[in-house]
Design goal:
This protein is α/β, with parallel strands linked by helices and 442 residues long. It is built from 16 helices and 15 strands. An 11-stranded mixed sheet has the order 9-3-4-5-6-10-11-12-13-14-15, covered by helices on one side. A two-stranded parallel sheet has the order 1-2. It has a two-stranded antiparallel ribbon with strand order 7-8.
Amino acid sequence: MVELLGKSREELRAFCVALGEPAYRGGQIYHALYAERKFEFARMTNLPMALRERLAEGAQITLPDVKQRFVSSDGSVRYLFGLKGTEEKKLNTAGIEEASTEDTRENQRRSGRIQVPASVEAVYMPSEGRQTICISTQAGCAVDCHFCLTAQLGLIRNLTAGEIVSQVLVALGEQGTRNEGKVAGLQAGHESGSKIASGAKARVVATQPRPGRRVQPCKDRVDAQTQSLAATQAHGAIQTNVVLMGQGEPLLNFEPVMAALGIMLDPEGLGLSPKHVTLSTSGIVPGIERLAQEKARPKLAISLNASSDEERDALMPINKKYPLKILLEACQNYPLRPWEHLTFEYVMLGEVNDSPDDARRIVKLLAGLQRVKVNLIPWNPGELPYRESLPERIEEFRRILTDKGIPAFVRYSRGRDVMAACGQLALKEVHSSPLTVLSRNL
Ligand code: SF4
């Protein structure tokens, strides 16, 4: 079966030509998938019946399984998605599958020829007139930032373009009904949030797997609800933001990430504005240089988190490979569009990187850059050996930056109580309650 989700218009055109169909049918499938968000061939009424039947026999559209949803008291929803594995079967000359050893399977996994099953997380964060979806680009991460427990998972595997874009499709689809309420007057979302706050601190809803029962994907619901979301957005009531800040380093999975972004930013695909899509990197300089060459690209955010090489080496070992001088040169050369700012994220770790001297060094570091802003992110407490900065220390840090003309904002994370906050995405196992999650991180 050929997987269609994640394919570009050109790939779908080539796929149709290979089937003996006119190339324009590929454009029609693209439209049905991403603009109309139809995930069943039977519902793609812009295609002739005979083609829909052929597609049902030889192709598939795979959305991730929603293993669990955790609803925060602030209205955020953390999704735990299950991603299927794929395996490239090696056939011998007689056409019989060769037995694969652990070694050959590991080699196949490393080379990307097989995809092991994996779990990743995404977070949906509603606010008045706006919805933000934070998505993952890898399962786990190899970058090893010391303040981040996702790093402790190691890199499990890269996600495909389809697996990246489908996190947005599922979250949008599931929230369609809620957004209809917002169009009617914003009350529905707020009411539901306050109900949760007055009751249990956080609750797990819907698809808890029961012993012996597999949770089925929710294609029908997503399909129906995304229709209403499309209608909602057509009224201009809800602004959709996507941030690539979940598990993984996006620039170390460059091609699939760019393929997914191509679909998200294409007016004939998901149609998101590049002003509302942000890619965050730990500072992979070759990736930043490649991104600068892309025609359709999101906004760029750099996860800075330190004011000197010594400090950054200790927090983010990637700094030894791409030290601040090289990273900031790449930032200086990055071609900003007229409306664009380069964002620096700075996680405030109490007594580690939050001193007034740190703030003054940041001012010097960013002095040569045009149009920057700094987001100060208070530490989300967890099991790692860091602590929160005092609010007055954060405020002093912010004031030192703004006094020197660098716009700086304090960004409190959403969904802390369900470990959906910045850097808390490192669920190792699925349990019946978010309180039994094995690990938390920044
Ligand atoms: Fe990877 Fe981001 Fe965690 Fe660093 S902070 S280890 S880049 S997921």
